[in-house]
Amino acid sequence: MNIDLALLLKVVHGGAKAWERLGDDGVRLGSFVNDGAVVYQWIADRMEVADFPSVSDLQGRFSGLSWPDAERYRYAELVDGVRTRRLGQVLSDGAAAVSTLLSAGRIQEAQAKLRALADAESDADVVPQRSLMGYGKEVRERYEASKSGAAGIAMPWPAITKMAGGLQRRSVTTILGRPGGGKTTMAINVARHAWVSGARVLFLSPEMCADEIAEVFYVIHSKTPYGGVILGNLDPESEGRLYQTIDEFGGETGLDILDSGDRLTPARVSQAIRKFRPDLVVADSLYEFFKSEYGDELKRLDFVTSFFQGASQLLRDDTGGVAMLGTSQLKKGSGDGEEAGLDDAGMSDKIAQRSQNVFKMWMKRPEDENNHVRRVSPLKVRRRAHWQPVVMLNWDWKNIRFEEIAPKTKDYQDSGVT
Q1: CA 256 to the chain's CA centroid
Q2: What are 242-258's pLDDT values in tens digits?
């Protein structure tokens, strides 16, 4: 039995007052794991923009989940179960035994097991006393991971990677830009680079088809002129390079995709993450997600931002969570993006709240367009390792160059930018 889903179903059945009671009882987002965390976040967001959901709303929104029979248990019993599981995780030696009993719905036995473990460890109360200074080991491990280059998934551009230490698990990084500015190309470059570096990647696109995305992937990887692929007039050398790349990677796995034909509902996206177990999820065009789920645009966009934050917590107990990268638009009226800030996110003001890192992609017209250049600037970096106001990137489809332009290099000087 999923104790989290049983409790949340019980609460929704009880209505808004039951939700308030849950908060009064000290049960928050951090009390839940995996699907429970996603569902809790959805209910919380729904409360901000709409009426409290009904049981049919909840089960309809998450139809892919296996909902337990919550009526078998009292509310207080389920709250105790969630607390017990949480404490069982703290007492790591007994976590597996406590979890097994809870999964079988044997809540009282789980509590007894937990009390026995607590008594064996200490004569103090079951609530653990933890000193902040006792986390030196974790700080050391984080530092050693960063030192070895394993802190986060690297992006293709060292300066952007350096700012936030890469794409971290259980975090969301959002790229903002104007339509046609190169956000999808950036997303595909990130996915390709991560996959080639050994990460498992899930690419989500509610706007494009898989063959379109694959075409861009193979063009970038083989450094084949895109125009020649579209028009079918590649020179023999370029054509051979494209075919060789297709043959080389044809049987490879680890870069999975769900596209516009895959009915990208919240439940199906969650299922895909659990099934494919990616290290990185790249969600292109966040503003296009879940349109069939919501009639109200504002509610939908608010839900999208909260959903992907919650989804980054999936697999937390198994792999430490998932790194998320999403692309979205800047508002109309933000020009080419030079002066745009977090308030100009075209989806929702919650994009700033729910994303650990936010970057904007912009141009100075006409010079950047003429010189095949894009600029990337940080708007928000939660764990800031470095700050660089602008990172210059080649954005040359003719010569398939998307690398970073290092300051004071000849490429930087030849770019004609200021």
Answers
A1: 15
A2: 999 999 887 888 999 99
